[in-house]
Amino acid sequence: MAQFALGLAAIGRPAYITLGRARDLGADRSVERLRADAETLLDAAWEAGLRWVDAARSYGRAEEFLAGWLRARGLEPGALTVSSKWGYAYVGDWRLDAEVHERKELTADQLRRQLDESRALLDGFIDLYAIHSATIESGVLDDAEVLGQLAELRASGVRVGLSTTGPRQGETIDRAVELGAFDAVQATWNLYERSAGPALARAHAAGMTVLIKEGVANGRLAGDAAPHELAVAAAERGAGADALALAAIAAQPWVDVVLSGAVTPEMLASNLAAREVDWDAALEERFEPLARAPEAYWRERGALPWS
C-alpha cells in the first residue's frame, strides 16, 4: 500500500502555479507568515501519521522551514524520511510579481553548490537527494561528472534519485533504470497525465522507489476546478475530488509514495481522505477518458500563472 507524504513546493515560497492560492494562503505571503503556516502544516502532517517530507532548493525557504521545525520539535535523523532536490535555484526575491521565479541549471557545479546548501540546513536528515526535473533533452543523465558526484553521495549512505517532467517522462525514467545509478524516481502521474505509468512500473520492478507528484494537476483535479464527472463521483463517496484523484494514484501497484501538495491542515485532511477511498475497476474505467495527450497536458501546465 502506498504511503502519503508532504511536499513543500507550494508552501516554501510566496508564488507557485497551483490554482486558488489567494483563497488558500491569503494576501500575507511574508516570510514570517509562510514560516508559521509551514510549521502548522508540518505539525498536522506529523499528527496524521505522515513520515516523509519532500523539499527542493528551488522551493524558496522550504528546506529552512523544515529544518527549523525539526529542531523545534526535537526530532532526530531517522524520525522521518527527508528528500530534497537540486537543479533549480529560487530567484524570485520573495515577490509574487517576479518576472522569473526559478532558474534551472543541471550541472556538476550546481550539484556541488546546492548539496552544500542543503546540508547546511538539513545536515544528517537528508535520506534522498534527487535531480530536479531531469529530462532526456537536458543531457544530465549522460553527464559523467554529475553521475560521478551522485555515485559518491550514494556511497556515503544517501540515496540518490531524479524527478521528471514534460511529455517525455517515460524515456527519462527508462534511461535512469538503464543506468542503474538511482534509488528513486519522482514523476507526474494523475488522471489527466498517465503517460509515464508503464515506465514507472518498470522502475518499480527494478527496485526504485516511485514517488508521484502533482496528483491533483496543480489544482485542476480539485475543488471547483475539478471536472464535473470527478466531482460527482467524489460526492457519491462522501469525499472531495482531490481525495478521489489521489486514491487513483495510491491504487497503482507500482506507486510507493503519493505526495500531497497541501498548504493548509484542512487541505491536507481532504487529501488524506484518499486513504479511505476504495478505488476499484469501475472507477478506473469511468475515468480513463479524462486522460489527455502528454503534449497537450504539458502545454496547459506550462501556461498556468504563478500566483
UniProtKB/TrEMBL annotation:
It holds the Pfam family Aldo_ket_red. InterPro entries: AKR2_Oxidoreductase, NAD(P)_OxRdtase_dom_sf, NADP_OxRdtase_dom. Gene3D superfamilies: NADP-dependent oxidoreductase domain (3.20.20.100). It comes from the Bacteria. Residues 36-278 form the NADP-dependent oxidoreductase domain. PANTHER family: D-THREO-ALDOSE 1-DEHYDROGENASE (PTHR43312), NADP-DEPENDENT OXIDOREDUCTASE DOMAIN-CONTAINING PROTEIN (PTHR43312:SF1). This is Aryl-alcohol dehydrogenase-like predicted oxidoreductase. It comes from Conexibacter arvalis.
